Structures are given as C-alpha cells and as structure tokens.
Amino acid sequence: MRLTEHPILDFSERRGRKVTIHFEGQPVEAYEGETIAMALHAAGIRVLSHSAEKHRPRGLFCAIGKCSSCLVKVNGVPNVRSCITLVEEGMKVEMQRGKETLPKGAKPPAWKDAPRYKADVVVIGGGPAGLMAAIHAADAGASVILIDENPMLGGQLVKQTHKFFGKREQFAGVRGVKIAEILGEEVKKRGNIEVFLETSAVGVFHEGEEKLVAAVRKNKELLEFLGKTLVVATGAMEKMIPFENNDLPGIYGAGAIQTLMNTYGVKPGDRVLIVGAGNVGLILAYQLIQAGVEVKAIVEAMPKVGGYFVHAAKVRRLGVPILTRHTILRAEGKDRVERAVIAQLDENWRPVPGTEKVFEVDTIALAVGLRPSIELLHQAGCQVKFVRELSGHVAVRDGRMETTVQGIFVAGDSAGIEEATTAMLEGKIAGIAAALKAGAASPEWLAEIEKAQRDLLEFRSGPFGRHVLEGIKKVLVGVDGYA
C-alpha cells in the first residue's frame, strides 16, 4: 500500500511516470524512480525468494543492498538486489528459488574493456560522511569522484524525518531529509565533483601510489576509478539477533522500514512490534505512527531505555508501551509474519517461564544496532580491530582519518557507529586530509581540519559520547593525549 498523505513528506513530488513491471508473469504497477522491492511491497508482495538449502521464504531485510534477502531474477539474470535496482517499463521479475545460474549464452563483460575515470580523490559512499568528504575535498581544490550504489545521494539521511540536535552550523533543527537535499545541491554546485550512482564498489587495489576502485554500474557495466587518495564512507549494516523464525518475510531492519515509509512512501504493514529501545527504535515508533501504522509495543532487553528521554517520552505519550527486560522469543507465520511472541528476562538474561505475551502483528522491526561496513577497507589491507564501543570491527586510523594504508581514509559509520552529525564532521576531516595528501590543497586547510576535530570532541563530550571516545582511543595511532 502506498502512502498518499503524510504530515511531513509529499510523495507525489517523488514519484515519476507510472510503469508496469511483471512479477511471476503478473503485471505490477510501479513508478519510475522507485526500486523493484518498493514496487512489490506496494503491491502486497513480501516473498521475493527462497533459501538455497531449505527453500524457506525470504523477503526484504536491509533495503540498502548489503544483505542477500531480497535477491530476484530480472530479465533472466539472477542475484539482482531488488532493494537498490530501479524499475523499468516491461521489466520481468521472477522469484529466486535457491541457487540460480546465468541465462544460457550470457557472457559477463571483461575487465580489460572497463572504462577508467581519474581524480585526485575518490569517495566511496554518498551518505552524510561521503557527501561532506566530497564537498570539502572539492573546496580544498581537489578533483573528486563520488560513487554510491544507491539510486540517490543521502544515505540514511533520506529517510530521517526528525530534526537534528547540536549546533546550527551542524544542521541543528533541520530534518535529515532536508539535510540530504542541501548536501546533494552542494555537490551539484561544484564542477570538480563527478557523481556515479547505482555503482557498487567491488574491490580496492593499489596501482603504484594510486588507489584503483573496481565497480559495477547498474548490475552490468564494469568501471574503474583511479584516485591519488581514497575516502571510504560505506556506512553500516543492520545487526540481527537470534530467535525462532527470524528469517520470515515481514522481519526488517529498522532502516528498511524507514526506507519503505519515508523514502518511497510505502506502508510496511499495519501492526508492528519494535525490538530495541535505543534512539533508532524510539524514532522509528513515531515515524510509523506518522505513516498511520499501529505500533503494538517496543521490546527492550536492557533494564532501561537506551535512547534519549525526549524520544521515549514522546513515544509513551502516543500510547506505545516500552517493555524493558523483555525479548522476542519467536515469530510465527507460514510465508510471512503473523504473530510475535515475547517474554520477560531474568537477571541472567534468560526468558522467565510463564511471562510470554503474544502480539498479533504483520511486521517485526529490529532496531538492535548497526555494525560498520569495513569489507573494502579490510580487502585493501587496512589494519582492523574489534572495538565494542564502536559496534564492531573498525579500521585503525590517525586523527585525520587516514588508515594504516597511506592514502586511504575512512569516515562515518564505517569508522564506528555514531550520529549523522559526527559522520559529517569526520567526512569533512577525511575529505580535506585526502585533498592535502593528494597534493591538491594548500596547508591553510589544516585549520579547517583542526576546527572539525574540536567540534567532534565537543559533540562527543555528552553522556552518550563518552563510550565512543573510549572506543576511538583504542583505534587512534599517532595521536597523543586524545580525550
């Protein structure tokens, strides 16, 4: 079901020309500018594929191209990520059933024929960190290539309808969706930034002193990007928790539900249970209510709410119960979620027998955290380290966000899970530092790096940032007295 009314967003401006795609031979109405998964969800189709071994139903989970739950066959070609592939008139989409093969006679393009693009700085990732890196590297005098595998710039910002905290210069009081628009317009204003959308980086290699990024555009075209320096701002992936039937269609990462509702105007379901009472879970609850979805409850394993009080108070005023010391035991349903069973936890984190509660829901949202996407950094030879405070494995780096591989910088959630504000500040530091390293910027830009570093420390000085500072100390090299 598509949303036609929303208190904040106007989807009529976002939807392009009406087109028809075919799923399993049946016509499905879609709009140019939306992805296959969004069109299928709007038509009530949740099962997109079946697992290879046990042939269990699979559906959308992350909606940002970083898992394999939504793979489909498109015009006979398997393993297409339906969440980031745009619809086209007459497109034939089929459910993927286990392991698939390429169509007979299909021949993949050869790397030797791939066109090559060059710049001083290549930025992978068009979210808040990548956008700020590209903008500031360009302003410092560098030529910049910005690539992102999604059909639009903005990353997580394009689905955030709440207003940001912080300083005015860091977009305090501005909604995330608006920040995405502002930064996207700033990129367009700069003639020394070339943008490649629907382009997935699949490898980072070294060619002399330069960095070579191998990429695939629109699932079929091979490209090469050569930069004197590289900024990796690939964001994060949704975490999963173990419970019975956690693979049923109708179980989504919180970000996927925000993508459905706030980016494409598609209602994810009618009745939702949220697992996780951090800021993401709390914000998601009132975003769902804005979209006309009933939130049955928020379940939190910890003894207290993890997010800001202001968010929790708003959710409670809207009548949503927050059940701390509870966890989900199982999802129930045949081909999709029909019910969720939860239970109370004791002091040893074990379910208490007899405390089970059943919720009749068609959607389960997992707001249980993110982990940094470091695959490209790891493959490029950057030293990585597990840091609990930063939510997973992250790249070791210095105060200018340069990793242990000279010329490769990191920023945003791929450097550790934090706020979008810190991602933008890290992107600014990494972008300027990459331009300096490439020899495209004058030393005067060092003052801008130092200012951004001070702003980062100030933003992290609050109670929610202290554990992050402890984590950052564990991965910083070449920096004394960081506190």
UniProtKB/TrEMBL annotation:
One of its GO terms (molecular function) is oxidoreductase activity. The keyword Electron transport does not apply. Residues 17-99 form the 2Fe-2S ferredoxin-type domain. Keywords: Oxidoreductase. Gene3D superfamilies: 2Fe-2S iron-sulphur cluster binding domain, sarcosine oxidase, alpha subunit, N-terminal domain, FAD/NAD(P)-binding domain. Pfam families: Fer2_4, Pyr_redox_2. PANTHER family: ANAEROBIC GLYCEROL-3-PHOSPHATE DEHYDROGENASE SUBUNIT B (PTHR42949). This is Dye-L-proDH alpha. It comes from Thermococcus profundus. The lineage of its organism: Archaea, Methanobacteriati, Methanobacteriota, Thermococci, Thermococcales.
